[in-house]
Design a protein that fits this description.
- The chain is mainly alpha-helical and 717 residues long.
- It folds into 3 domains: 314 residues, no CATH class; 186 residues, Methane Monooxygenase Hydroxylase, Chain G, domain 1 (Up-down Bundle), CATH 1.20.58; 145 residues, de novo design (two linked rop proteins) (Up-down Bundle).
- The protein is 79% helix and 0% strand.
- The chain has 25 helices and no strands.
- The chain is elongated.
- The termini are far apart.
- The N terminus and C terminus are likely disordered.
- GO terms for molecular function: transmembrane transporter activity.
Length: 717
């Protein structure tokens, strides 16, 4: 008997499988987008109402403080929650201590007390502007916590200690609930986000290098890419700091991330210098019709671009460097076989070769660190020092002054209006002036919070008097308040509406949550609503009126700070100077990027060009100083020291005359260095060639500074 043919699947089964595949795909997509947001909302609500329940059980005076703490600490990852919680508790302790000290010093003198508070808030806000990370949040807390404790104690100074202890207890309770919920229930580890950032950074940089080497990107777009890379460097450092608080994040991993960031900055700076040289050569070729140096260098860049398209394993990196050495030898042979290059062309060629070799070495170090991180290999790396933010002093001073002025203005309003609820306005104005001091666009941040307050006003009133008032125990209270708080948490999980969600959540936490002895007073409720909103509006107006141009990332302040960093490169101690200089310049460019938004205007792009030129100039100056420190006395060293003296004079008092004097000194130094090459031993010869490369970079960068436009270089050394 013949076997019966295999049964064919019915149309119903095929359709069912298609439906299941579609549902699976849609579910996976939802889980990675909206699903994560709703998990975040669920965890935030669990932490909030757990803290509220415990606050009621413990009989705390202000249960809403514990709930408000959990709302403020609701962050996307467990590392970010733990980091912010640590600095919040630290800031609360310091702020309460400051309030106790100030009230003890000025117990019966409100004017002196508010002057002391204004000075304290100014110092704390200035510290927040200086650090611009979660440490800055600790400064902010120390400032406004002192105001929250001392202001109610103006008429009753004997209650200040009780207020301080209660505040620490309530904040500590909220911190514990947030930390436990976000770190235990469906934890979202920040270390994974850091590794995704590392992978994106590496892939983005390699792709950028290929496009530049193949001339598939304009100089203007290249500058904007450097601006974004500066922001990426700051973002990775911030992410590393948050991941540090998670279990399993070791000190060695932190050192590897530091080294990765440092290697990235080194490779990026070398590549920028190489790109600028190539751009100048192409500009010269366009004007002259042909350029022998470009004809020799272009194939080297093309071969390197081709090599970068492959996965940069250790073997391929070694192969790339060997191929580059062979290409350079062939280019030198081609140069020797043709007509002799003039001095300017020879310098350009030697500089291009030096930069290509240096970039290949920097890229190899960068790739090794990347593969060690992604493959979770422990690497022995020297700690290059962490990325350090650098805020211009004028911004720090303006932030402190604005916060102090806001406190004094609202305190005067409290006195003249004789409206008890104005205390809320004092607190809100002080809080948001301090919080927004580290933001590149403070008015946008404060306006979002103000929108959240305005949306919350009618919703909070309805929830309080139509729903919460009917709750006879804790569980109906949760059902009554949950929709409003969940709505705020959902908004806060959106990058676009995050400020609105935080404002809505803070407003509702202050007004909707009942105390242990609840009083439902419509007049008092509306008065509190108006005063809270008025405080945020005052903060917005202060940013608009008081020193509006003295905000983080303003291009004029960034340009001044960049110039100051170039001055520092000439005179500061050499130990780790190159790393510090790179950190600070990149941080200033990161501030500029954050303030400029997605479409920088022409003035911002001009500051970017100046910053990148000063970065190239500063690196060359530091290298030159290192070479001088390692050199013996002689004509070459004397000429290099003269170059440094004149460059220092130019950077401290820029003028056309001082710039021309520095250019002439650079040309003379080049002559002296080339004269010393004849009888130099191999080690010194390598240093002298590096000096020639640095002189060439300084010369062309200085020409850019003097003219404001990129110049085709003339003989620099």
């Amino acid at each position: 008997m013949n076997a019966s043919p295999a049964a064919q699947p019915s149309q119903e089964h095929s359709a069912a499988r298609r439906v299941l595949r579609w549902l699976s795909s849609e579910t996976a997509g939802w889980a990675s987008t909206e699903g994560e947001r709703w998990i975040f909302v669920a965890k935030a609500m669990l932490a909030s109402f757990s803290a509220l329940w415990l606050a009621f059980r413990l009989g705390l005076d202000a249960p809403y403080t514990a709930l408000a703490t959990t709302i403020i600490l609701a962050m996307p990852s467990s590392g970010m929650v733990l980091e912010k919680a640590f600095y919040r508790f630290l800031g609360t302790l310091v702020g309460c201590s400051a309030a106790l000290a100030l009230v003890a010093l000025f117990p019966q003198t409100p004017v002196m007390l508010f002057l002391g508070l204004a000075l304290w808030v100014a110092l704390c806000t200035g510290g927040a502007a200086m650090h611009r990370n979660q440490q800055s949040y600790s400064f902010v807390l120390a400032g406004y916590t002192a105001v929250m404790i001392a202001t109610p104690a103006v008429d009753a100074p004997d209650h200040v200690f009780t207020l301080a202890v209660t505040r620490v207890t309530e904040v500590g309770l909220g911190i514990i609930c947030s930390a436990v919920v976000h770190d235990v229930i469906f934890p979202r580890r920040h270390s994974r986000a850091v590794m995704r950032t590392v992978q994106e950074r590496y892939a983005g940089f390699i792709d950028f290098c290929v496009k530049v080497l193949e001339q598939r990107i304009t100089p203007a777009d290249a500058e904007l890419n450097h601006l974004k890379f500066a922001a990426d460097i700051a973002a990775l450092e911030s992410g590393r700091a948050a991941a540090f608080f998670e279990a399993g994040h070791s000190r060695s991993h932190t050192r590897q991330l530091h080294a990765f960031n440092a290697a990235f900055m080194t490779a990026l700076t070398t590549f920028y210098t190489l790109h600028r040289l190539s751009h100048r050569l192409r500009a010269a070729s366009t004007m002259a019709g042909t350029d022998r140096v470009l004809a020799l260098v272009a194939p080297l860049e093309a071969h390197m671009a081709s090599a970068l398209r492959n996965d940069l394993t250790a073997a391929r990196l070694a192969q790339m460097r060997n191929a580059l050495a062979n290409d350079i030898a062939a280019a030198r042979a081609q140069w020797a076989a043709g007509p002799a290059l003039d001095r300017a062309q020879q310098i350009d060629f030697d500089t291009a070769v030096e930069l290509l070799q240096r970039f290949a070495g920097d890229l190899a170090d960068f790739a090794v660190l990347y593969h060690g991180l992604t493959q979770q290999k422990r690497q022995q790396v020297s700690d290059p020092g962490s990325y350090s933010p650098k805020t211009p002093p004028a911004i720090i001073a303006a932030s402190g002054f604005r916060a102090a002025a806001t406190l004094l203005v609202t305190a005067a309003m409290w006195y003249w209006l004789a409206w008890p609820a104005t205390v809320n306005a004092i607190l809100m104005a002080t809080i948001f002036c301090a919080l927004a001091s580290s933001s590149p666009r403070p008015t946008v941040l404060v306006s979002q919070v103000l929108i959240g307050f305005l949306i919350a006003m009618p919703l909070a009133f309805i929830t309080e008097f139509l729903l919460v008032a009917k709750a006879d125990n804790f569980y109906p209270l949760v059902l009554a308040a949950l929709p409003l708080f969940a709505f705020g948490a959902y908004l806060s999980s959106s990058p676009r509406w995050g400020g609105v969600g935080v404002g809505l959540g803070m407003f509702c936490a202050t007004l909707v949550v009942p105390t242990n002895l609840m009083r439902y007073d419509v007049e008092s409720f509306i008065s509190s609503e108006l005063s809270l909103t008025m405080g945020v509006a005052v903060a917005y107006l202060m940013f608009k009126v008081v020193l509006p141009e003295h905000t983080m990332g303003h291009r004029n302040h960034v340009a001044t700070a960049l110039w100051r960093e170039a001055q520092t490169a000439c005179t500061a101690k050499l130990h780790r100077l190159k790393r510090r200089f790179d950190n600070r310049v990149r941080d200033l460019l990161s501030q500029l990027n954050a303030a400029a938004g997605p479409a920088p205007n022409a003035e911002t792009r001009s500051v970017v060009r100046q910053g990148l030129t000063l970065l190239e100039l500063g690196h060359a100056i530091i290298e030159l100083r290192q070479l001088i420190a390692a050199s013996h006395a002689g004509a070459a060293r004397d000429s290099l020291e003269k170059v440094l003296r004149l460059l220092t004079a130019y950077l401290h008092a820029p003028s056309h005359a001082s710039g021309e004097a520095a250019l002439r000194a650079i040309l003379d130094a080049g002559t002296a260095v080339r004269a010393a090459l004849a009888d130099a031993h191999p080690e010194r010869r390598a240093r002298l060639h590096t000096a020639l490369t640095d002189l060439h970079s300084i010369y062309t960068s200085l020409l850019d500074q003097l003219s404001g436009e990129p110049h085709v270089p003339t003989p620099a050394a």
